[in-house]
Amino acid sequence: MKIENTPIEDLLVITPKVFEDERGYFFESYNEALFRENGIDIKFIQDNQSFSKYGVIRGLHLQLPPFAQTKLVRVLQGEILDVAVDIRKNSKTYGQHFSVLLSDENKKQLLIPQGFAHGFSVLSPTAVVSYKVDQLYDKNSERGIRFDDPSLNIDWKIDSKECIVSAKDQILGGLKDLE
After folding, report:
1. Is 131 a catalytic residue?
2. Using one digit for the tens of pLDDT, what is the confidence trace for 138-163?
3. Full residue range of the structural domain in which residue 7 is found
4. Do the beta carbons of residue 80 and residue 122 sit within 8 Å?
5. CA 156, CA 79: separation in Å to the nearest integer?
6. In terms of pTM, does the model score above 0.85?
């Protein structure tokens, strides 16, 4: 397993060790002991999965404390641009975002700690995204940031005419509205 730091503290890109042969491949997508050995001590309690088609943008979503979630995101099929926005008010990178291509080919994962908003855009014809969380969903603590908030200037790698965004996500406010 390879763990890469990002320009935003505590946000990690994880690449598992993949064993390939003529039959295909095998890898451990999650190993609690290996994570702990590498300083990642999180108790995941739920797995989520979504299916989306090209152009879908999901997010930017978050939950407020005490229901804030750490997420370990990976792609089972297809390719996405995964995006995390630092919303930790005391962080030196508050309001900054990081994006990474996650795909079934590169098998990379993004570990997004509590204190971040999260979203992704689908760049392949379809994508299946799986992620672990350390807190259950709580409707009353759910919040979000509009995907096209000009203060974030996120390039979702999709032409604006081809973006597919839920009605719920289209009415979200900007980062400033979280304050």
Report:
1. yes
2. 999 999 999 999 999 999 999 999 99
3. 2-177
4. yes
5. 12
6. yes
